[in-house]
Amino acid sequence: MNQTYEECIKACLECMEACNNCYDACLKEDHIDMMRECIRMDRECADICAFAAKAMQSNSPFAKEICQLCADVCQACGDECAKHEHDHCKRCAEACHKCAEVCREMAA
Amino acid sequence: MNQTYEECIKACLECMEACNNCYDACLKEDHIDMMRECIRMDRECADICAFAAKAMQSNSPFAKEICQLCADVCQACGDECAKHEHDHCKRCAEACHKCAEVCREMAA
Amino acid sequence: MNQTYEECIKACLECMEACNNCYDACLKEDHIDMMRECIRMDRECADICAFAAKAMQSNSPFAKEICQLCADVCQACGDECAKHEHDHCKRCAEACHKCAEVCREMAA
Amino acid sequence: MNQTYEECIKACLECMEACNNCYDACLKEDHIDMMRECIRMDRECADICAFAAKAMQSNSPFAKEICQLCADVCQACGDECAKHEHDHCKRCAEACHKCAEVCREMAA
After folding, report:
1. What one-character DSSP code corresponds to residue B61?
2. Nearest by CB to A36, which of C32, C40, C43?
3. Which ranges of D1-108 would DSSP assign to H, the alpha helix?
């Protein structure tokens, strides 16, 4: 694998996992009414993170452009998750903001 | 469904199909040595087209940004396919260039 | 494209669209508390339908096995959607049950 | 995250990476004519591994059935990769056979 991509792939896969966990947990929350945007962003973010990881792993000629998109989605998802007090949201916000940062560097 | 998206979703799904068909046919060509880039771009383009269709169908807040990426990949895949004489490549080039145009309008 | 697959690909893509539409609409419903399972199944079903369409379009050696899985998910998603009175749920239930039937035939 | 799934998610993500790496490397091999099936299986396997990881991470009610499908694809991809002498194929065969085993246990 391209060593350049190693850190970014790791951040994407960790963010994918945090988002899918948060998605499942949000769907079970008592006050799901508050979690609408979080559920929506979690799905979106998990899916683009998986897409970005695949692009880097397979040396896509569009890896940088995909990482730029991934950074934008991760930033938005992390900002949404950071509004909530649930542990799964806090963990997800942290993984998203980390991934946004690493993807931005990759895309630069 | 959002009516605005209807034409673009259709173009993405038709491009996805043309790319997946071309991918399969390229893998069976006698002179596969010539088809390396076509195989690679077909997979990439089919996958981003599916991703863009999903984004529009589910009213993603990132639909426009995803369509911009999709337009870039479709343009590159169409340009690659247009270099080859196989019917599947010609059909794919046409679907890719059409989708690139519609996605660019959507992203504008 | 393989003519055998044509009807099944069409059913999968229509089901994907109905599920993604229903997912978006469920996330906006007043009584989202009632829609938890519908949201979850819509995502799952949309994603496996896209996966099955790709498999058939690219002549995957696993197309039949993937269609069997798709049939099971479509059946469960259609059964869940059929419990609700919203138009988007009724349309989704219909698309899911249709797709389940066509996928079962494909897998047989 | 569900602790039960931890090992299986890890195996799927490692297999996804090995398959995407092998796919890219096969597309660059001098004797690409020999690598047709390997390219095809690598894409298929990488994609189902990503799908299975997502299913487990989000507590899908179909996680077991998806892992059974994943096990079958991993076994076939590993068997194909094991026919080739390239380092990327050997590494991929190992990751695939490991993932097939863990997925089979999960599905049981």
Report:
1. T
2. C32
3. 6-26, 36-57, 63-81, 87-107
> Which of A16, A17, A57 lies nearest to residue D21, judging by beta carbons?
A57
pLDDT tens, residue by residue, D50-91? 999 999 999 999 999 999 999 999 999 999 999 999 999 999
pLDDT beneath 50, residues of chain A: 1
Neighboring chain C residues of A21 at a CB cutoff of 8 Å: none
Burial of C48-73, coded b for 16+ CB within 10 Å and e otherwise, reads bbbbbbbbbbbbbebbebbbbbbbbb
Interface test with A, best of B48, B67, B70, B79 (most A CBs within 10 A): B48
The band of C45, judged by pLDDT with boundaries at 50, 70 and 90, is very high
Are A33 and C32 an interchain contact pair (Cβ–Cβ within 8 Å)? yes
Six token digits for residue D39 = 């390219």
- Judge whether residue C9 has pLDDT over 50: yes
CATH number for the domain that contains residue A17? 1.20.1270.360
> How many distinct helices (H) and strands (E) make up chain A?
4, 0
What ipTM was predicted for this assembly? 0.95
Question: Which residue of chain C has the CA closest to D52?
Answer: C48
Q: What is the pLDDT of residues C73-90, one digit of tens each?
A: 999 999 999 999 999 999
All residues of chain B having their beta carbon less than 8 Å from the beta carbon of residue D33 are 32-33
Number of domains in chain B: 1
Residue D83 belongs to domain spanning = 3-107
Phi and psi angles of residue C7, each rounded to the nearest 5 degrees, phi first: -65, -40
